[in-house]
Task: inverse folding
């Protein structure tokens, strides 16, 4: 019994580590505030842990977890009813459905972006990664790469275009195969 519990716990930890960022991204598409999305992720994670005994290993964990997240968001809507930006239930349902339908495409684009980032020279890659690191801005990226702030803005615009073109090409090649 203890070994079965240990195996089940290990599986839960591995799945949560693999999918936590994606679950957060899903929640954040439904909740405008990052801090509210983080709170809902915590509630969702607790429920996932509590209900994991009901999860069938080998089935789609991400979809299962997103269903839990969806219900957590729906329950939290009462709390957000006084906020300035509140989606009505119909809009929230469409966003959730669209996000689910786009998941495969988003995965392809994410993998393509990883490949395209590797193609950048070290300075440009460091610039982009620093800029989009949590809590960082263009000024931080400029200092990290030895550029002026104005130069960093220009470089980031150029790099974004290069990455966009590269990702578009990579995805089109992947779809053609």
Result:
């Amino acid at each position: 019994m203890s070994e079965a519990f240990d195996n089940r716990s290990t599986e839960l930890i591995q799945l949560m580590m693999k999918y936590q960022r994606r679950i957060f991204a899903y929640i954040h598409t439904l909740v405008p505030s990052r801090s509210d999305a983080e709170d809902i992720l915590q509630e969702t994670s607790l429920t996932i842990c509590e209900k994991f005994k009901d999860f069938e290993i080998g089935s789609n964990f991400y979809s299962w977890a997103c269903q839990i997240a969806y219900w957590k968001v729906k329950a939290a809507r009462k709390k957000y009813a006084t906020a300035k930006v509140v989606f009505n239930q119909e809009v929230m349902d469409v966003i959730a459905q669209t996000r689910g339908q786009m998941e495969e495409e988003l995965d392809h684009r994410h993998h393509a972006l990883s490949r395209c980032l590797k193609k950048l020279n070290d300075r440009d890659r460091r610039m982009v990664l620093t800029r989009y690191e949590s809590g960082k801005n263009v000024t931080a990226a400029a200092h990290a790469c030895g550029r002026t702030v104005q130069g960093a803005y220009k470089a980031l615009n150029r790099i974004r275009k290069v990455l966009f073109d590269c990702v578009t090409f990579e995805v089109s090649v992947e779809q053609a195969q």
